[in-house]
Each structure stands twice: as C-alpha cells, then as structure tokens.
Design goal:
By secondary structure, the protein is an alpha/beta fold. The protein has 2 domains: about 5-235 and about 430-455, Aldehyde Dehydrogenase, Chain A, domain 1 (3-Layer(aba) Sandwich), CATH 3.40.605.10; about 235-385 and about 390-415, 3-Layer(aba) Sandwich (Aldehyde Dehydrogenase, Chain A, domain 2). About 40% of the residues lie in helices and about 20% in strands. The protein has helices spanning about 20-40, 45-60, 60-75, 75-100, 140-150, 165-175, 195-200, 210-225, 245-260, 275-290, 310-325, 355-360, 375-385, 400-410, 440-445; strands at about 5, 15, 105, 115-125, 125-130, 155, 185, 205-210, 225-230, 235-240, 270-275, 330, 345-350, 365-375, 395, 415, 435, 450-455. The strands form 4 sheets. The protein has a 7-stranded mixed beta sheet, sandwiched between helices. Helix 2 runs antiparallel to helix 4 (about 75-100), helix 3 (about 60-75) packs antiparallel against helix 6 and helix 9 (about 245-260) crosses helix 10 (about 275-290). It starts with a strand and ends in a 6-residue tail after the last strand. The chain binds NADP nicotinamide-adenine-dinucleotide phosphate. NADP nicotinamide-adenine-dinucleotide phosphate binds near residues 189, 231, 234 and 435.
C-alpha cells in the first residue's frame, strides 16, 4: 500500500510520502539504540515531566490534530477531539502511576535464604509498534505512554494511510522534550517490517491490527525470539437478556456498533437477543440505527462519516451481500451512498446463521448482526461460537445472569449494562484469535519490561 493521506470523504490523495530507504532505516535504528542506552538511566520523575508536557501539548493542539485525523481516515470531528483528549489523559495517567506500577516487588527474604530479595522492572530497549489507522492517535499513544514511562524507546510503523498523524506523534514527543531517538516514526511499508523486527537492536514488538498481520509479525518475532503483544480483530457479542432495559440497550447498541464509523475492534458486532424480547429490541434498535446521520465527518452533527478506505467499504459490501444471499433479512441500510467518498449507512441484518461469513468474520463497518437465542444458555453458546475473544457486552437486570456471563464468556472483557470501551485504568486485550498480552493499566506497562529477580545474600557492606 502506498504511504499517503487520502481523504475518505472525497477520495482525493492529499499528500504522498516515499518509504524510507534501507540507509534511512539504518540511521534510525542506530539512533534508537543510542537513545535507549542513555534514556534507560533517566528517572521516573524525569520521564513523568516529559509525558505531562506531551499531554499539555496535545490539549493545546486538540482541534488541529483532530482535523488531521478526520482528514486522513474520516472519523467524525467530535470523536477525533475526544480521542486527542483521551491521549492526553493516557499520558498523565502513566506520568502519575508509572513509578508505582514499576516499583520493586520485595519478597520475604527468609523464605528464599536471602538477606534481601525482590523483582525489579527494567526497560527492554527499542520496541517496534505496528499500528492501525482506526484510532490513529490513541492506538499509538497507548503503546507509547507506558513504553516511554518504563524507559523503553519507541519505533512506530503506523498504517500507510495515516502518515501525517504518524509524523505528528514523533514531533509531539520531540517538542515535549524527549531526547533525540526516544520516539521515532518509521515511514515504511508492511513489507519492510521484517527487516526492522529482525534487527538485533530491536528488542520486542507490539502489533494492533488484523489477524494476518499479527500472524506474520508474531512468526518473525517468534523466529527471532522476541516478545510480542498482539491486539487483533474482534466480533464482540452484545447480549440482550429478557430482563434488560430494552430502550437503553438499543440506544447504547447503536453507539457501540457505529462508533468510529463502525471501525472499532471493540465495537459490538453480534447482537444476540433472547427470543422473548427479540421483536421489541429489534424494532427499537432498527429505528435508532436508521435515524443516524451519515455525512461530512467535519460536521459536528454527523454520526457516521465515510469508511477509511475504498477497499474497506468493498469488504463490508461483500460480507453483507454474502449474508443476504444466504437468507439474512435487511432491516435498514445495506446500500452505499451515491457520490464521492466511501460512505456506507448504518445497517441492520437479522436472521444470521452459521452458514454466513459474518457469523465468524469481523465486519469492519456500521453493520449490526442480530441473532436470536432461545435462552441464556444458547446466548452464551452463540457468543462463544467465534474465533475472536476481545470484548463483550451483557444487558440484564439479573445479577445471577450477569455473573454467569462474566464467568462463561470467552473474551478479554465483559461490560455489564454499558458499552465496551478502553480506559487507561483497566487492562485491555483479547484471547483466542483476538491476540494476547495486555495494554493499559499496570499490566500494559509491564509487558515490555524485564522483570529481573534480585537475590542478595550475606556479605555486602552497608
Ligand atoms: P492491518 O491491515 O492489519 O494493518 C495494521 C498495521 O499492520 C498497519 O500498520 C499495516 O501496515 C501493518 N501490516 C499489515 N500487514 C502486515 C504484515 N504482513 N506485516 C507487518 N505489518 C503489517 O489492519 P487495519 O486494517 O489497519 O486495522 C483493522 C484491524 O485492526 C481490524 O481487524 C481491527 O479489529 C483491528 N484492531 C484491533 C484493535 C485491538 O486493540 N485489538 C484495535 C484496533 C484495530 P500497512 O498499513 O502499511 O499495510
């Protein structure tokens, strides 16, 4: 894929970039290695000051940065502004808590025959982050803020369609005062990732993106024995049980499916509704979906902007056509909008069966799949009948039903009576083909650290 900003609202190429040459990559790798050697010696307090400065710059520049993201990948301006603010919050969060998360972990010395024994978290060095376009600032920031706080050095290979946001990130950290080479953007193609990942100066990698990209990076990293974290796709279930507040569930379901123009890994995608309330939920939900405004992402009144790429829209259309050909019922939407831009409306399909591709594949656009289940047992079984295991949502007023779902749904998260979202305070990640490892919270910052065991016997002078 060419490295270029292409406006999804018009299809026009705004700015193109050349991929880095081998010599330019070498220069950046060397710079990263040099920076890592000295940056790891900085204190938590020094790193926290720099992260807080980055947060302040993000807030000052919120509107311009939001406009850039909207231009490059079509998210609505309202959600783009919220994303910038979330990034600032993420920087502040790690500035405040990073030192505590990485404090030495003492163990009872007598039990291990020591005078003193503890675990110490130390940085690994340069970490490669391969990131997707859908939350171009937040995805990169939730890697960068904990990584830099831990004393690691970041190398960002961002998606090819958000090069300007990628360059903004490098510039942001430079202006915040991070030393040269501590955070660099590599404008490279996916084909150049292997060369960077195999380089001995690169110690680990994190990838957020599709399954095939994750498989490729994990295979190379496995071969080179480097730690990876993978955040991959999802097809989150949204269970609506008999005692749920149906109107509220339908309202939240609409946002949960259509946030970010339907292009979120943790968007609710499969709406599994128990038979008893299925007609009522479906009609509330369809009405709310059909009422969403599709249009110019720069207009604050718009609910759904264009899909990010032409290919992305074609993929959605193919999946919808397959479901319809196999007997799904179209409740609303289902037709691309005429004119320029890659617009696709909020769509509801019911009568989904395992024969349809959408049963087991991720739909990366504003398309909701409604599946009926006889009871709670069947709802949980259907929820788990997917290769993915990222987030999940459950709507019920019964604490017994909620407890069963929390226990039995195979996913990295369960949100009860609320929409799945990410918070710096909570761990984020998946199971099954949605990946492994965790981002955010204390767990995220520890992923790219060497937890060194320190055992000290008698004989040291005071
Ligand atoms: P993608 O095509 O997999 O791209 C993600 C990143 O991987 C891009 O930087 C891409 O570079 C790179 N890449 C692609 N193929 C590669 C390969 N073979 N080797 C090395 N790098 C490779 O995914 P996307 O279309 O941008 O994003 C959508 C997917 O990401 C969805 O499946 C979504 O669910 C998932 N996602 C997951 C999370 C999560 O936290 N679990 C969050 C957001 C998105 P190029 O752009 O140059 O191809």
């Amino acid at each position: 894929m060419a490295i270029a900003s292409v406006n999804p609202a018009t299809g026009e190429t705004v700015k193109s970039f050349e991929a880095l040459s081998p010599a330019e990559i070498e220069l950046r790798l060397e710079r990263a290695a040099t920076a890592a050697a000295s940056y790891r010696r900085t204190t938590f307090a020094e790193r926290a000051t720099l992260l807080r400065r980055a947060a302040a710059i993000l807030r000052e520049e919120r509107d311009a940065t939001a406009e850039l993201m909207t231009l490059e990948m079509g998210k609505t301006i309202t959600s783009a502004r919220a994303e910038v603010e979330k990034c600032a919050k993420g920087c502040d969060f790690y500035a405040e808590h990073g030192a505590g998360f990485l404090a030495d972990e003492p163990v009872e010395p007598a039990g291990v025959g020591a005078v003193e024994a503890y675990g110490r978290y130390q940085p690994l060095g340069p970490v490669l982050a391969v990131m997707p376009w859908n939350f171009p600032l937040w995805q990169a920031m939730r890697f960068a803020a904990p990584a830099l706080m831990a004393g690691n050095v970041g190398l960002l290979k961002h998606a090819s369609n958000v090069p300007q946001t990628a360059l903004y990130l490098e510039d942001l950290f430079r202006r915040a005062g991070f030393p040269e080479g501590v955070f660099q953007t590599l404008l490279i193609t996916s084909g150049q990732v292997e060369r960077v990942l195999r380089d001995p100066r690169v110690k680990a990698a994190t990838l957020t993106g599709s399954g095939p990209a994750g498989q490729s990076v994990a295979a190379i990293a496995g071969d080179a024995i480097k730690k990876t974290v993978l955040e991959l796709g999802g097809s989150d279930p949204f269970l609506v049980l008999a005692s749920a507040d149906l109107e509220r569930a339908a309202k939240v379901a609409t946002v949960a499916r259509c946030q970010n123009n339907g292009q979120s890994c943790i968007a609710a995608k499969r709406f599994i509704v128990v038979e008893e309330v299925a007609d009522a939920f479906e009609s509330h939900f369809t009405a709310a979906m059909a009422a969403l405004t599709v249009g110019d992402p720069r207009d604050p009144a718009t609910d759904i902007g264009p899909l990010a790429t032409e290919q992305g829209r074609e993929d959605v259309e193919e999946l919808v056509a397959d479901a319809l050909a196999k007997g799904a019922r179209l409740r609303c939407g289902g037709q691309r909008l005429p004119g320029p831009g890659w617009y696709y409306p909020a769509t509801v399909l019911s009568g989904i069966t395992p024969a349809m591709r959408v049963w087991s594949e991720e739909v990366f656009g504003p398309v909701a799949l409604v599946i009926r289940a006889a009871d709670l047992d069947e709802a949980i079984r259907v929820a788990n009948d997917t290769p993915f295991g990222l987030g999940s949502n459950v709507w019920t007023s019964s604490s017994t039903e909620a407890a069963r779902c929390v226990d039995e749904i195979e996913a990295g998260a369960v949100f009860v009576n609320g929409m799945t979202t990410s918070y710096p305070e909570l761990p984020f990640g998946g199971v099954k083909e949605s990946g492994y490892g965790r981002e955010l919270s204390a767990h995220g910052i520890r992923e790219f650290c060497n937890l060194k065991t320190v055992w000290v016997g008698a004989g040291l002078e005071e």
